[in-house]
Amino acid sequence: MSVPVRHFDAVIVGAGGAGMRAALQLSEAGLKTAVLSKVFPTRSHTVAAQGGVSASLGNSEPDHWHWHMYDTVKGSDWLGDQDAIEFMCREAPKVVVELEHFGMPFDRNADGTIYQRPFGGHMSNFGEKPVRRACAAADRTGHAMLHALYQRNVRANTHFFVEWMALDLIRDAEGRVQGVVAMEMETSDIVVFQAKATLFATGGAGRIYASSTNAFINTGDGLGMAARAGIPLEDMEFWQFHPTGVAGAGVLITEGVRGEGGILRNAQGERFMERYAPNAKDLASRDVVSRAMVTEINEGRGCGPNKDHVLLDITHLDPEVIKSKLPGIREISIKFAGVDPIQAPIPVVPTCHYQMGGIPTNYKGEVVVPKDGDHKAVVPGFYAAGEVACASVHGANRLGTNSLLDLLVFGKSSANSMIEFIKSEPAELPELAMADVERSIARVKRLDEQKNGTNVHEARSAMQRVMQNHCGVFRFKDMLAEGVDKILEVEKMVKRCEIADKSKVFNTARVEALELENLIEVAKATMISANARTESRGAHVRDDAPDTPETPNGRDDKNWLKHTLWHRDGNRLEYKPVNLTPLTVETIALKTRSY
Amino acid sequence: MNEFDPVELKRIRWRSRRGLLELDLVLTKFLAQHFDSLTPAELDAYRRLLDLPDTDFLDVVNGKAEIDDPELAGIVEILRGL
After folding, report:
1. What ipTM was predicted for this assembly?
2. Which residue does chain B place closest to A508, by CA atoms?
3. Domains of chain B by start residue, with CATH
4. A558 phi/psi in degrees, rounded to 5
5. Which residues does chain A have with pLDDT short of 50?
6. CATH-assigned architecture of domain A243-350
7. Is A162 in CB contact (< 8 Å) with chain B?
8. A331–B22: do the CB atoms touch at under 8 Å?
């Protein structure tokens, strides 16, 4: 079998913030760097990040990286690795100032310094009071970041391969990574990108859920490729949710709607929050509201033909109040829910937003897997950064503005590790290991030749429904156990997916089928990891985890202060310790997380 | 190139995948309901809109920003109505 092979020093899959930050570092070091992206780089999902990027610059009031570190450890519900968190918070001011020098148009103070605003969970003096730490470019921080990085990369001669989809990782017999097999969408040609070092910066896989804020491109391609190549996925049970997304669409309805008097109702029209939170009612905290919504749906009081959502009612409010106090909400509701909220309530459901888990790495961006009793064994030549990676800085729950920071810090640190590694390697690339290449080609061939198979859209919808109903924002023992069986059934459908269109040119049906093969790996990892973790921690909240003095809020440090590793082979789970030892400071001791 | 070159049509369909969910949702509807019946001029206008950065494109679709180009007005109108 003859496949064209292209040679590079480094190959990067994904051209969002992490991929482009890494590419810049590599190209500026004079290394021949390829970046593969399914879409034009500035249309990566990083563009959706509005809030900002956190760094303890202290431009408006005193701040310190150690305080930022404390907030991040606490936010992670102590599941984050403290060496990686210290590294990220110490690097933050440097990478933000670098970005400023790359031409990022940050908002500024009168004295010319970067303007900073407060953001949830970011505090001064070890949790004392809110601090201004978020640096933003209006409400377009992600967009501005992508543009600044893209321009610099063009100048640095980074080789972009736009509208290319990576299919599989290539590993030799010893497990060293040699590059990726990729497909050019315009022609469906399959090409090997061989490199001394390979970085995955493919983003998250929020599309495993029926209701997700993620763009359609977020299909967890890096996670699927890693899993198929025998790399375990870490902490995949942890996903951040928002209580009120438009059912069926995922577009968020701001919490301000409930602040202005919006009421949540079930199928009987009942204001159910009165039963769950008699005082705060609809204004109870996010987790309480999400939990109540899910309980109503699970107990058969959901709305719509599938009884799978509840209603957010503002029909009793003065239309003028809706227009003046809640600008945009009416338009969102009309556009994405098909209802005018002045006349009818908005269908809403808890909505997936961000993936905390991913490919296990250390703070240098090197992928690490357990080997011969060492849980920190590096996979030579393989790196990951951004939402696809689990360093782990977000642990069980991410703080706002730490995701853009994650991209910059670990995009850069992984690139520095790659530069060092590439320099230590012989000039000649080794002989290409063909087994993975052939497996990848066979996978595409299977898809093209499948007869009497499953429809891709149906299989994907089935997966999304199972994930939403069985492994959503609030989790139940029996539902999870049932969910494991159901998702393994869906996997059988995915393995038999068929595409009607076999054409070669921009065949989106083929791309979507290949994406689904990645999503299903993430879905299995999530469901199986969540079913096994019998505590509540951060974003993983279980109905059957008791709130006792030993296990406050259901968090069971005695048994569950550890990272999950899911292996695709046999759906095997293993665990590794959380690193509670920072690089230079003392450990941030375990405490109950409360704000 | 002919405006109805099938390769170009498929390329435009793929380029309707964006970085923002809101655009994905609107453009998916547009592709399903309107794409096959566009005139060459409308197709060209749509292709030009796709070159906008996502954030600007969404502002146009949401009516928060206007584009001062009469050739694009028809497509913008359709997108806003979806």
Report:
1. 0.95
2. B14
3. 6-16+23-81 (1.10.150.250)
4. -60, -40
5. none
6. Alpha-Beta Complex (3.90)
7. no
8. no
Asked if A286 is an active-site residue, the reply is yes
Q: Which residues of chain A make contact with B22, given a CB cutoff of 8 A?
A: 251, 336
**Residue A50 amino acid letter:** Q
The structure tokens listed for A143 are 């967009």
Residue corresponding to tokens 């998250």: A204
Beta-sheet pairing, A5-13 with A33-37: parallel
Per-residue model confidence (pLDDT) at position B1: 43
Topology (CATH level 3) of domain A5-238+355-431: FAD/NAD(P)-binding domain (3.50.50)
Residue ranges matching CATH 3.50.50.60 in chain A:
5-238+355-431
Fold for domain A436-571?
Methane Monooxygenase Hydroxylase; Chain G, domain 1 (1.20.58)
Q: By three-state DSSP, how is residue A404 classified?
A: helix
Report CB contact under 8 Å: A147, B62: no
Q: What's the gap in Å between the CA of B39 and the closest CA on chain A?
A: 21
**Tens place of pLDDT per residue across chain B (82 aa):** 445 788 889 999 999 999 999 999 999 999 999 999 999 999 999 999 999 999 999 999 999 899 989 999 999 999 999 8
Q: Do A55 and A405 touch, CB atoms closer than 8 A?
A: yes
CATH 3.90.700.10 in chain A, residue ranges: 243-350
Assess contact for A72 and A122: CB atoms under 8 A.
Answer: no
- What pLDDT score was predicted for residue A260? 86
